[in-house]
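Thanks for the sequence, V.! I ran GNAT family N-acetyltransferase right away. Repeating your input here for the record:
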Amino acid sequence: MPTVTVRPARREDIAAIAEWNAAMAWETEHKRLDLEVLLRGVGAVFDEPRRGFYRIAERDGCAVGCLLVTYEWSDWRNGDFWWIQSVYVAPQARRGGVFRSLYRDVAQRAKDAGAVGLRLYVETENRRAQATYRGLGMEQCHYFLYEQLL
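Predicted structure:
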């Protein structure tokens, strides 16, 4: 199996990240996202690092996946949770350790930065992803996610 390396995303990755986000939204929720909005949204993370950061996975020098980390302050724990979001692995690279490499990279960075934990959300029907997350040591929380779009 080829080696997977993880690196910081760069501005030249914005188009690929936006395309991957669109693909992920279609695959998981059958939602079509506006590519122009996505391009601006991804770019905004680079414009204001307080929003988070992207990591890119490469195999044989070719980008094959990414994720976004954002922050949530926990007053209960006096520290940040790092949220893993916008996870995407190219179809040809799936089941090849790409997400595992991204996750381990982020987990180590979070630990080094003093974060209190990692969180992510997953579609209720996505059993394969849920099994992957459990296999990495994550546990299902006792919370439901609610939202209201404005």
